[in-house]
Amino acid sequence: MIELYLFLAFMIIAAIVATEIKDLLSAVISLGAVGFSVAIMFILIQAPDLAIVQIVIEVLTIVIFIAVISRTTHID
């Protein structure tokens, strides 16, 4: 049970970092950490099918976000 609370705390911290950080790539990586933490929580509550779906969706989302970020121009 303590593992769930640790991953929940990690998810909250990573979500705050994702919203507060200025670098888009770092924000996407932090958002990916939140998604993978959700997948680990699914594994901990004995729901491996949901964990697999979460990982697949998270990987696709991260790839799409990085592709979109790489195609945008950087303006300060």
UniProtKB/TrEMBL annotation:
<keyword id="KW-0472">Membrane</keyword>
<keyword id="KW-1133">Transmembrane helix</keyword>
<dbReference type="Pfam" id="PF13244">
    <property type="entry name" value="MbhD"/>
</dbReference>
<dbReference type="InterPro" id="IPR025383">
    <property type="entry name" value="MrpA_C/MbhD"/>
</dbReference>
<feature type="domain" description="MrpA C-terminal/MbhD">
    <location>
        <begin position="9"/>
        <end position="72"/>
    </location>
</feature>
<keyword id="KW-0812">Transmembrane</keyword>
<dbReference type="InterPro" id="IPR042106">
    <property type="entry name" value="Nuo/plastoQ_OxRdtase_6_NuoJ"/>
</dbReference>
<dbReference type="GO" id="GO:0005886">
    <property type="term" value="C:plasma membrane"/>
</dbReference>
<protein>
    <recommendedName>
        <fullName>MrpA C-terminal/MbhD domain-containing protein</fullName>
    </recommendedName>
</protein>
<dbReference type="InterPro" id="IPR050616">
    <property type="entry name" value="CPA3_Na-H_Antiporter_A"/>
</dbReference>
<feature type="transmembrane region" description="Helical">
    <location>
        <begin position="52"/>
        <end position="70"/>
    </location>
</feature>
<keyword id="KW-1003">Cell membrane</keyword>
<feature type="transmembrane region" description="Helical">
    <location>
        <begin position="28"/>
        <end position="45"/>
    </location>
</feature>
